[in-house]
Amino acid sequence: MSPETVAALTLAGFPAYFVPRRWGGTEGDFATLLAAVAEVGEACASAAWCAGLWAAHSRFGAYLPLEGQRDLWGASPNVRISTGLAPHRARAARTANGDWSVSGEWDCVSGIDSAQWVLLAATVSEGAEEQGAVRVFAVPYADVEVVDSWRSTGLCGTGSNSVVLKPTSVPGRRSFVLADMLAGRAGEGASRCHGVPAQLVGGLIFSAPAVGAARAALHAWTGWAAPKAAESDAASRGPLNRCLARSSAEIEAAVLMLAEAARRADAEPVTRLGVARNHRDAAVVADLLVTAVERLFRTGGLHARDGEGTLQRCWRDVHTVASHAVLQFEEAAAHYAGAALTP
Predict the structure, then answer these.
(1) Which end of the chain has the smaller Cβ count within 10 Å, N or C?
(2) Contact 121, 129 (CB under 8 A)
(3) Are the C-beta atoms of residues 120 and 90 closer than 8 Å to each other?
(4) CA distances from 231 to 69, 173, 179, 234, 237 (A)
(5) pTM of the predicted model over 0.90
(6) C-alpha to C-alpha distance for 21 and 39, rounded to whole angstroms
(7) 20 backbone dihedrals φ, ψ, rounded to 5°
(8) How many Å apart are CA 7 and CA 19, to the nearest integer?
(9) Distance between the two ends of the chain, CA-based, in angstroms?
(10) pLDDT tens digit string along 288-318?
């Protein structure tokens, strides 16, 4: 993304969205965030992806001890945070003074070139009490090496490159247990936005950029189809009519599902079934949007095959969003069935 886009997203308040109020943040709700991310996605899905994640990552940062939070937000809540939460190639060990020595490699760290801090997960390799546990460490951007590895078909502007951290000392105040964040164990007195399980909201934030991209695809397709329809007789307009009606309805259904899931995340008691339901619905939203945009693309004529065209860009972006592991329907279905069928 251009520096101008990064500055605009920061000024709009995405990085500060879930920052605790004590640091000047918003502690916002999920419904407002998802609507804003989708709106950005109508212009650029990559910008929307990073906007949503910068907001989400400020929620993660709230799990740090207060002094660690001060390191991030003591000067300003408008801090862009990227994350690498797959710990498979990362290790951490306690040092003699109680700090941590952290090293490793992490792939697909979205927005890293515009980040100021990075949250990196690593497996504790030494220490009788915590050995094998996964902790998250807040590291300044200047401490990591960014590897230019992002070659995706869609979401090209996210710059989701790889990150390498050579053995680096991280103060104990800049670490928290990953399992606490995943389970929503934010502690007594935490705001609603901080005290919810990751699976209740993660898929919603991932799918919101695809809503915007699907809307943009529909707009581009309609601009192409309108003059064709005007020149055609009633019989010839049938395929256009069916494509428009079906795809627009699927996109609107996805929007309604996402809004209802956001309402549950903001207001309903957190239950195992509710978490599974939101996981399920985020995956279904992604499937609906892929189906709708795929139909638009396949009926969009030669215009849709133009590599510089909006419809093809949106087609690539929606498919790339839907490929994220959190949005795979098989896993979401198993999660939902496990909760719904258990007495």
Answers:
(1) C
(2) no
(3) yes
(4) 62, 67, 60, 10, 9
(5) yes
(6) 25
(7) -55, 145
(8) 18
(9) 49
(10) 999 999 999 998 766 565 556 899 999 999 9
